[in-house]
Amino acid sequence: MATGISIASLSIAAVVIIVVAAFAVYKAIYNRRINKRLAEGREADIKPMMSPFKFVIVTLLGAVGGMILIWLIIIIVFSARMNGQKKDMAVYPSLSFYRDEMLEDSLFAGYKFGDEIKGYNRFSKQFGDVKLEVYIIKNSYDMFPTVLVASDYVGDKETVTFCEEVKYRFHSEKWGNDVCPDSLTAIDVGGYKGKFTLEHNVYYTDDAEKLMNEPPDESYRLDFKIHESGSIACPQLGLTVDSWD
Fold first, then answer.
1. Where are the beta strands (DSSP E) in the chain?
2. 24, 161, 200, 245: which could form a disulfide with 220 (CB 3.0–4.6 Å)?
3. What is the C-alpha separation between 125 and 152, in angstroms, rounded?
4. In the chain, what percentage of residues exceed pLDDT 70?
5. Which residues have a Cβ under 8 Å from the Cβ of 227 and sit 6 or more positions away?
6. pLDDT > 90? residue 112
């Protein structure tokens, strides 16, 4: 409150100073022209001036308008910098893909599709011919990935590619690979609190150009929200804050 009053006081003081200074200049010019008229009479070449009252009103309105414009520019610049700082400080998703040797060298060595993983709650979902095993960490303060996802295809298509994408407020990250059920996609959110989405996209091709530029043949979505308490909600998995806490 005090800061707001100080800013208002400074703004008013600045307007007053501008008006007084401008009027002082105006009065000096006005007096000079009056003296010239008195000295030279009607033959004096004097350009007309607005009345003192009108000059004060015009100068006051101009000073107030200029001050408002300056503060608007300051607010816009400050807001842009604050938004930039918030974006820089935002916790981006860390998406990792574990398979084969990488899986064996990780904390999840020996994982097979559908296994239980210590420290995680497992949720099984099936969308058409795609099976998902989703693991949500039990203790949000553990130094392990928050969400693990394993996926398998049980249909009759010969060529299938999975592409997973995590979308946060300021960031998105993708990972694509052929079907490998005994692998894990790990999503580490760090200290992030808020919403993010996991999109599991299915392509019936392995053509890189199509994977990059064309929409998927099938797409499945999981919406997550991490609350301040660390609890995780996901309607597609039946997870709410109440059920989690």
1. 94-98, 120-127, 130-137, 147-153, 161-167, 172-178, 184-188, 194-203, 218-226, 232-233
2. 200
3. 11
4. 81
5. 193, 233, 241
6. yes
Q: Is the CB of residue 180 less than 8 Å from the CB of residue 110?
A: no
Amino acid, res. 201: N
Tell me what pLDDT residue 244 has.
Answer: 46
Q: Tell me the two tokens of residue 179.
A: 């079907």
3-state secondary structure 37-56: HHHHHHHCCCCCCCCHHHHH
Task: Tell me the per-residue pLDDT of 122-173, one tens digit each, with 9 for 90 and over.
Answer: 999 999 899 999 999 988 767 788 999 999 999 999 899 988 888 877 667 7
End-to-end CA distance of the chain: 39
Beta-bridge partners for 94: 188
Own/partner pairs for 235-239, CB < 8 Å, 24+ apart? 236/125, 237/123, 237/125, 237/134, 237/136, 238/123, 239/123, 239/136
Taking the C-alpha atoms of residue 44 and residue 145, their distance in angstroms, rounded to an integer, is 88
The rounded distance, in Å, linking the Cα atoms of 120 and 235 is: 18
Could you identify the residue written with the tokens 């309105």?
61
